[in-house]
Amino acid sequence: MVTKRYLITCLLFILSAQSFAQQTQKNLMPEFMDQRFGMFVHFGPVTVRGTEIGWSRNKEVAQADYDSLYKEFNPVLFNADAWVKAAKDAGIKYLVITAKHHDGFCLWPTKFSDYNVMNSPFKRDIVGELAKACKKQRMIFGIYCTVLDWHDKNYPIQNPYDSTKNVKGDITAFKATMKGELKELITKYDPYLLWFDGYWEKPWTNADGREIYDYTKSINPQILVNNRLGKVSEALNNESVGDYLTPEQRIGQLNMNEPWESCITICQQWAWKPNDQMKSLKECIQTLAKTAAGNGNLLFNVGPMMDGRIEARQVFRLKEIGDWMKTYSSSIYNTKGGPFVPNDNFASTRKGNKIYIHIFKSAGNTITIPALPNVVINKATLFNSEKVEVKQSGKNIQLTLPDKLPDDNDNVVILDINQDAEKLPVIKA
Ligand code: FHN
């Protein structure tokens, strides 16, 4: 006979186990921000046309044509390990894939929509293969999921360019489908983060965002969620929904208080576009340096081609960034931004008693930076150990660099100082 005492004991055990689990839930945000560098991948049937994912539906590509592209989608050269290796070769630490973008096509075998990769000629679980490759190569894995789905009849907006095409929809049913898809994605692929998108359209409310955020955390309290479920996108406050800010196609401002990640394309378009203009190596490296110097992460986007490969020129550019990172990664990973507010001439990151001055432009071989009150600079060197002359005054610090600099894209001077650089106040240059 089960006694009352036994039941109470069991209940107390369950409650204490739950509270222990909550207390031991590690806040992954500091670890995530230490990674500094991620790869965004926008991929889907739209690559068959080479136009922009989602946005070219009902524009460059007629809706019926766009929604039939999946019948031609067969990226037979897709190799998840190759994508992950290209990211690793760049020094990238996490990868985020568009599992479902605004066109509603799902890159995994979901039970909640027939509009998925298993009903294309490809018939392979792209999300699952990527998750596996990331695990094998120790790459953090993240999933992008839109909250606006112009293909789903329960979502009222079917055509962002022509409201006459919109439908009544059923947001309650739409959210139920979304929850089903999210549960599949979280339980099957165990993503470190969910990158939501599409918060801006009228049918979606802040309350809907909060509901999905809470649902996501109820499945995995540790999973990180960006700030694009809610309507407030420029700050983390009582109104906003999400764990970190996501400035787009621009480098975020120096922010020592709120975690943020800039998402920026290596080319112009998010999805693959033939002969799209690609950023120079200098622009790629300085974008990464300025993002880290702002105390943020960079989510750098590539758009693989219709055959499943990332363009060779993009793979090569990623490798070139990786070659720079082989020397300078200690000035990026695990650092904090500042203490100097970044500008066009220089930016700074810091770790322990070191300040890394990223030099983008210098007047001849000297660069002047603001004074560091009550700080003694014990030593200044380049990463190749060459000495840098330092003249410290109450007004400023003048650094005189060797005539021949080792790097063409971002030369970094290491200032060894007499205290913890991470405790210095932010200084406007
Ligand atoms: O509409 C999307 C766009 O296609 C792309 O996915 C970017 C990536 O951050 N997010 C939205 C635009 O803000």
From TrEMBL:
This is alpha-L-fucosidase. Residues 21-328 form the Glycoside hydrolase family 29 N-terminal domain. Alpha-L-fucosidase is responsible for hydrolyzing the alpha-1,6-linked fucose joined to the reducing-end N-acetylglucosamine of the carbohydrate moieties of glycoproteins. One of its GO terms (cellular component) is lysosome. SUPFAM superfamilies: (Trans)glycosidases. One of its GO terms (biological process) is glycoside catabolic process. It comes from Mucilaginibacter gilvus. The record marks 263 as: May be important for catalysis. GO terms for molecular function: alpha-L-fucosidase activity. The keyword Signal applies. It is an enzyme of class 3 (hydrolase). Keywords: Glycosidase, Hydrolase, Signal. InterPro entries: FUC_metazoa-typ, GH, Glyco_hydro_29, Glyco_hydro_29_N, Glyco_hydro_b. The keyword Chloroplast does not apply. Belongs to the glycosyl hydrolase 29 family. Its EC number is 3.2.1.51. Residues 1-21 form the signal peptide.
